Amino acid sequence: MDHSGHGMTMDLPPFTLGRALEFSPDLFFLTGCLAALALYGWGVARLRRRGDAWPVSRTVFFVVGVLTIALVMCTKLNDYGMVMFSVHMVQHMVISMLSPILLLLGAPVTLALRALPVAGRGSTGPRELLLKLLHSRYMRIITHPAFTIPMFIASLYGLYFTPLFDFLMGSKAGHVGMMVHFLMVGLVFFWPIMGVDPGPHRPGYVMRMLELFAGMPFHAFFGIALMMASEPMVKAYASPPASLGIDALSDQHAAGGIAWAFSEIPSVLVLIALVYQWYHSEQRQAVRKDRAADRDGDKELEAYNAYLASLQTRGGR
After folding, report:
1. Tens of pLDDT, residue by residue, the chain (317 residues)
2. What letter does residue 75 receive in the DSSP assignment?
3. CB-CB neighbours of 88 under 10 Å
4. If we measure between CA atoms, which residue out of 178, 148, 129 comes closest to residue 26?
C-alpha cells in the first residue's frame, strides 16, 4: 500500500534509529549534495593552486552542513518522515535551522567570488552575474528583516495550519519542493545575521542579535501549540500506519517538543558565532588603530595629552 503517491510503503516497521539511518537516497537531494561538495572543493583547490589560503574551519563547516542535509533527506529518516510527524519535524528543523547555519559558516559566496575567474573586458561571466545578483534590488528585499522574519514565521503557521501542507505531501515533487523551501528560508533568514558572506543587508552585531531573537520565539510557540493540542492538527499524519505501532496524537506531541527544543539550539550556535565575530572585529579594529598610530606618531594621543595639559593650565590659574 503506497502513501500519497510517493511509492513509499506504509507498512514500515516500528521506528528505530538504526532503521532510520539506513541509506535511502532522494535523487534530487543526493545530486544537489554531491554537486555542492564538488563545487566547493573545486573552489578551495583553485585557491590553493594559486597560493591563496582558505580556512580549514570554513571547509569543515560547509561539508558538515551538506552532510546534515544528506542525513535527513538521503536516509530512511525521509521515508519515516512521510508517515511520522515527529520524524518529519526533525527533518524540518535540521534543514531549516541547522544546515543553513553550518553552510553559511562555510562562506560559499566569498569562496565563489575569490575562485571564479574575472571575465574579460566587455563580457559577463559567472562571477559578474553573482556580483550583479548580490547588488540587485531582489536580493536587498529577500535579505531584509521585514521579509525574512515574516517568511520564517509563515513557513510554520502558514504551512502546517492550512491545507497547503497536505497538498504538498500528496506528491514527491511537492515534498521535495517543501524541503527546498525550508532550506532557502533558513538561508535567507540567517545570511544577514551570520554576516560571513557579503550581502546587501549587513546590520551591526546588536541588530543581528535582535533579528535572531525576533524569529525564535515563534518556533517555541508553534511547538507548544502542537504539544497542547487535544487532537491531530495535520491531516497527513492523522492516521499513521498500524505497522509503526504509534498513536497520532502522541506522535504530534513529540513533534511539538522537537520544534520547541530546536528553537534554542540555533540561537546558541548563532550567538557563539556572533560573539566570536564581534571579538575578532574589535581585535582587527584595535590592530588598525595601532598601525595608524605607528604611522602618524600617535597624533591622537598627543592631542589628547595636550588637551589634558590645557585643562590643568586653566585649573592652575
Report:
1. 344 444 444 578 999 999 999 999 999 999 999 999 999 999 999 999 998 999 999 999 999 999 999 999 999 999 999 999 999 999 999 999 899 999 999 999 999 999 998 877 777 888 889 888 888 888 888 888 888 888 888 888 889 988 999 999 988 899 999 999 999 999 998 888 887 888 777 777 777 778 877 877 888 888 899 999 889 888 889 989 999 999 999 999 999 999 888 877 777 777 777 777 777 666 666 566 556 555 665 665 566 566 566 666 665 55
2. B
3. 28
4. 178
AA identity, residue 197:
D
